[in-house]
Write the C-alpha cells for this entry.
Amino acid sequence: MSIAPKKAIVFSDEVLQDPYPMYARLHEEGPVHYLDVGSKWPVWSIVSHAECSSIAKDPRLSAKRAQQMLLSLPLSRQSEFAELARMLGLWLIFMDPPEHTRLRKLLNKGFSAAAVEGLRPQVEAIVDQMLKPLQHGSEVDLMRDFANPMPVRIILEMLGIPQELRDTFVEWSRAIAVFRGNPNRTVEEAHAAQNALIELTEFFRKTVAERRRNKGSDLISLLIDIEEEGEVLTEEELYAQCIALLFAGHETTRNLIGNGMYTLLQHPQQTAELRERPEIIRSAVEELLRYESPVQFTARVLKEDIDVCGQQIRKGWTVLCMLGAANRDPKQFQEPNDLDLKRLNNQHLAFSAGLHFCIGAQLARLEGQIALLNLVQRFPKMKLTGPRPEYAPTFGFRGLKSLAVIM
C-alpha cells in the first residue's frame, strides 16, 4: 500500500497545549497515520492502544534510535553530534537484546518491588520536609517549589549525590529533555544536550571512582557491586545508566506530579473524594498517568518491512507509538476523556510495554502517591490562580512550565 499523501500534523503549538482533540480525530480516522514532522525521513504514528502495545513488544522493531534523532538536523551539521548519539545509545532504553537483556537484569536489582518499598519512609520524609514551609493561603508556583525539585532530590539521595547540585542537575536534565522530546530538533538544542551529557559523564566518572574507594548503601555502590553470571557493567555503561536514571527519575515524575495536581484542581469533586478516601490513591495515580501521560510517545525503528493494520511500513522508517493517544483510545477505555479516579482494570501505557517497560515505574508510582495525597490532604483549599498554565515545549514529555496556585 502506498504512502497516503495526507500527513497528520501532530506537532504544533496548539497541539502542545491540548493534544486530545487531535488524538480523538486521529482515532476516528484510523490506527495508523503518516506524520508531518518537518523532516525528510518517513515517520508513522500508531494511536490505537492494541497496536501500541503490540508494537512495543515486536522484535522486528528496534529501540536503537539514538542516531535517528540527528536526522532532523542539517546534514552538514550531523557529524558534530556523533558523541551525543553515542552517549545516548548507551542508555538502556536505546538498546535491543541481548545487550538490553544483560543490562536490564543487572539494573533490576536496584528497582525491585522490595527495594522501592524500602524507600517509602525516605520519600515521605522528603515530601514532608518540602511541604512544611508552604503556607496556607500563600501563592506558590507548584512546579518550581515542589514538583521540579522533589523527584530529583529523591534520585540524588538514591545515588548518594550532594543535594546542593540539584539545580545544576535539573538544568542538564531539561537540556536533554528538550532535545529528546522534540521531533523538530535544532542544532542549538543538540549542542545543549551534548554538553549536558558530557558534563554529566565527567561528573559520574569522578563520582564512581570516589565510590569505588568508599562504598556505601547508595545505588551507585550497588551498581558497582552487582555481578551476575560473571557479567558486570562496563565503566561507560555505569556512567550512562546513572545519567539515564537521573534523567528519567526527574523528568517523568515531575510531570506526573505537575500534571496530576493540575488535573485534580480542575476536578474538585473527585479531589474531595480522594481526600476523604485516601485508600483510592493507587487507582487515582494510575488514572492520572492515563489521563495526562508524562510521556506522550516512544519511537521505534523498523528492522524489516512490516504490515500495521493494512499499512505497509518499510525497513529503516520510524514509528511513533503515541502513548498519550493510546491512553485515550475509546476501544480500550470506557469514556476515555473522563477522569475516573476509581477506574478498574486500567491497562494504560504510560510506562510503555514489553521489554522497555519503564524500570523506574514503581518508584514513580510511589512518589506520585505520596506527593499527591499529601498535597490534597494538607491543602484542602488549594486552587488555581493566574492565567491558564502553559506546557513546556517538549512534545514527548508532557509537563507544565509552571503551576500557580493559592495554597
